[in-house]
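User: C-alpha cells in, sequence out, please.
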C-alpha cells in the first residue's frame, strides 16, 4: 500500500539525502504535486521553488495552483509567494521561458511529466539537472505512464508512490481502470 504517510516519510528522507532527483507517481492525479508543495512549505521558509508545467494557462485551475488562491495566471519568471516560499513558473514546452526564471533554485517541481515521457523528450528536466543550479528536483506524474524508458529512468534516483487507495478506493480503482 502506497499511503500518504509513507509518501511523506519518503519525500522527507529524500530532502535530507544527497540525491538530487525524485520521481513521484501514483493514483492521486491532482494531489501529488500539492503534497510536495505542502511538505516544502512545512519544512522550509523563504526558498525559491520553480514550478515547471506543461501550460501556463492551467495554473489558475484548482488542480494545478489555483488551490492556493491564484486568481490569474502569473507571467513567466514572475516571483509569487505561496505560503512560506517563493515560486517562479515556466513551461516545459517553451524553451524560451526557461531563461526567464532564475538559475539558482532550491527546488523544482515538474508537473505533469506525462507528455515529456510520452514524447521521450527530457530536455526540460535535463536543463534543471545540468544547467540550472537546482538542489532538488521532483518529477511528478499525472497518470502514470509506466513503463518509463531507460533514458528517463537515468534522470532520477528515487521513486515514491502516492496512491489514493486508502483515502478514496473508488477513485483509486477508476484511475487504475478497474472501475467505470
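Assistant: Sequence out:
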Amino acid at each position: 500500500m502506497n499511503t500518504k504517510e509513507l509518501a511523506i516519510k519518503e519525500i522527507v528522507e529524500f530532502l535530507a539525502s544527497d540525491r538530487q532527483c525524485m520521481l513521484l507517481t501514483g493514483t492521486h492525479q491532482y494531489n501529488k504535486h500539492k503534497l510536495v508543495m505542502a511538505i516544502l512549505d512545512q519544512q522550509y521558509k523563504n526558498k525559491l521553488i520553480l514550478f515547471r508545467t506543461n501550460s501556463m494557462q492551467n495554473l489558475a485551475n484548482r488542480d494545478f495552483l489555483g488551490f492556493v488562491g491564484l486568481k490569474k495566471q502569473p507571467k513567466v519568471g514572475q516571483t509569487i509567494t505561496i505560503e512560506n516560499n517563493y515560486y517562479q513558473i515556466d513551461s516545459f514546452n517553451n524553451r524560451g521561458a526557461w531563461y526567464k526564471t532564475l538559475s539558482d533554485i532550491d527546488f523544482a517541481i515538474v508537473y505533469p511529466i506525462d507528455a515529456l515521457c510520452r514524447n521521450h523528450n527530457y530536455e526540460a528536466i535535463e536543463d534543471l539537472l545540468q544547467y540550472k543550479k537546482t538542489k532538488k528536483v521532483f518529477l511528478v506524474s499525472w497518470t502514470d505512464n509506466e513503463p518509463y524508458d531507460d533514458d528517463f529512468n537515468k534522470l532520477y534516483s528515487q521513486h515514491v508512490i502516492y496512491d489514493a487507495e486508502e483515502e478514496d478506493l473508488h477513485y483509486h480503482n477508476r484511475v487504475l481502470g478497474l472501475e467505470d
